[in-house]
Specification:
With 398 residues, this protein is of the alpha+beta class. It folds into three domains: 12-121, Acyl-CoA dehydrogenase/oxidase, N-terminal domain (Butyryl-Coa Dehydrogenase, subunit A, domain 1), CATH 1.10.540; 124-229, Butyryl-CoA Dehydrogenase, subunit A, domain 2 (Beta Barrel); 250-376, Butyryl-CoA Dehydrogenase, subunit A, domain 3. The protein has helices at 12-30, 36-49, 68-78, 90-103, 106-118, 232-249, 268-277, 284-303, 310-332, 346-355, 366-376, and strands at 123-126, 142-146, 149-156, 167-173, 184-190, 196-201, 210-221, 225-226. A four-stranded mixed beta sheet has the order 1-4-5-8. α1 runs antiparallel to α2 (36-49), α4 crosses α6 and α7 runs parallel beside α9. The longest helix has 23 residues, at 310-332. The protein is globular and about 70 Å long. The relative contact order is 0.09.
Amino acid sequence: MTTPVAEPVESITEFRARVRAFFTSLPDVLAQVPGTVQRGKAYRRALCDAGLAGISYPTPLGGAGLSSDYETAFREESLGLLPGEDALFGLGLGMVVPTLRDHASGEIQQRFIPPALRGDEIWCQLYSEPGAGSDLAGLTTRAIRDGDEWVITGQKVWTSQAHIADFGILLARTDFDVPKHSGITMFALPMDQPGVTVRPLVQMTGAAEFNEVFLDEARVPADWVVGDVNGGWGLAVALLGHERTTLGRGQLTDDENKSKAGRSPLPFNGLVARAAEHDLLGDAVVRDDLAVAYTGERLVPWGTSRRLHPSVGKLWRTIQGRHCAQTAHLIGGAEAMAWEPDDADADYWAYHVLNCRGMSLGGGTDEIQKNTLGERVLGLPREPGPDRNTPFSDLPRN
């Protein structure tokens, strides 16, 4: 759906002032709202009512109809001010909604984009399976047409937010007799139905950020196919591109926005303050590491430029994240791994040190990003795929 961008009714300067005023008043709006999900939805409603949701999306889809310059201004003004609950909508707004905007029918856009922008519906991503992670096209979740519905059977794993999601963007195989990339279809799956079972995966930290999802004849309306039947692989790649852009662009954390810890590299200013606390600003090794961190922090926006492939920003941010975490460990020593019970901020540093490796895996490993850049940016030859044209049903599987 293409709609002309509306003529701006306020200057960028006036818009920035309105964004600051919104976040100044936001704590009062959320103060009496109980529960993380409820606060998150209240935040999105307030954002929408203020004309600050979907800033560059057309007004028929619930957006503000402004140019991307206003989107950039919002990101800059909201740095450090976003509530922790904003993360609940990152997957839906950063990955699913852009994919629907670019590739879905007008009916699907109208059904799903406005409530997503308003925060009425939360999304999860039903991609990975126990036997299909990096080789996502090897997925075996099956979709069979049954009258006005599709019947879905299979298992997904490592699914963030599945326990709170209203919908999942699902990849399922609709044709086993064509090559594996050709028989995949994308669906909008309602999560609240008898055929969907969500089970949390408890991590060694005690947290359960991920889930496994069992689909036992779950049902999807026939007209909730995104794109074409058997045409889902191209959409899957497009969505992953939006994911890598989102991960690459992830806002730099600061002392007022620790809720984003682990999703972005440690901020340079925070590393400098930490080094000063330990009287290490004169240490040659620390100064060299801080110089690299400073350079990296300023290259991140370049890496997420619209002119560059999404894998550039994602890869650079994970490299930067590892370097900053290692620098924090060098500065803090044992304090980066163990701390006194009354030190409320110490786990902030430990989380970064422990989590930085995980960020090299989420959204596609560093090796996948390098392969993608080699083939699609540098034009290097693809690795040989002797089974590229073999029907999926003929491929050996575990």
